[in-house]
Design goal:
With 159 residues, this protein is of the alpha+beta class. It has 2 domains: 1-30; 32-158, Porin, CATH 2.40.160.20. Helices cover 18% and strands 64% of the residues. It has one helix spanning 2-29, and strands spanning 32-44, 49-61, 66-75, 82-93, 96-109, 112-125, 127-130, 133-143, 148-158. It is elongated and about 85 Å long. 23% of the residues are buried.
Length: 159
């Protein structure tokens, strides 16, 4: 009888300890903000031109797998093209991030304002020398009237 009571108490203690540890891990992994800056080289299929640009992401990660944010891209072309995208983000692997969402591109072509709505898709490969910083290649594209493909290098900071 004493042996059964001792085993039951040990099991209850172990389960409680595991639940407390799981709760602590959840607490430390929730609510991470991320800021990313990228230098990109973009090819516009509609304009048949390539240009350099910069891209910035601000993402809120609920956990290590799922996040959401916003992206701003500026291409250094004749049209002064700017893009804003709403992002859904997922980390299928520790070293990879996928960003997908709707994209709005707008530019001023001489005296005319032009805008396009499209779909945004991007893959980041993350090399993490420290926990709060990552760097690596980025490839992606926008599917729209003037679809574009791009590649570059990103620097990411977790805040």
């Amino acid at each position: 009888m004493e042996r059964k009571l001792l085993i039951t108490l040990l099991l209850a203690f172990q389960i409680t300890a595991l639940q407390a540890q799981e709760h602590d891990e959840e607490k430390t992994h929730n609510g991470i903000y991320e800021l990313i800056g990228s230098m990109i080289y973009s090819y516009s299929m509609g304009h048949e031109k390539a240009n350099f640009g910069n891209e910035f992401h601000f993402t809120y990660w609920w956990n290590h797998t799922w996040g959401a944010g916003i992206s701003y891209t500026r291409l250094y072309d004749d049209h002064k093209t700017n893009s804003i995208a709403l992002l859904g983000s997922v980390n299928p692997k520790k070293w990879m991030t996928l960003n997908i969402g709707p994209n709005l591109s707008f530019s001023k072509n001489y005296e005319e304002f032009h805008h396009e709505i499209g779909g945004y898709l991007e893959v980041e490969f993350n090399i993490r020398p420290v926990r709060w910083f990552h760097v690596g290649p980025v490839i992606g594209g926008v599917v729209s009237e003037n679809s574009e493909l791009y590649g570059g290098v990103h620097l990411g900071f977790e805040l």
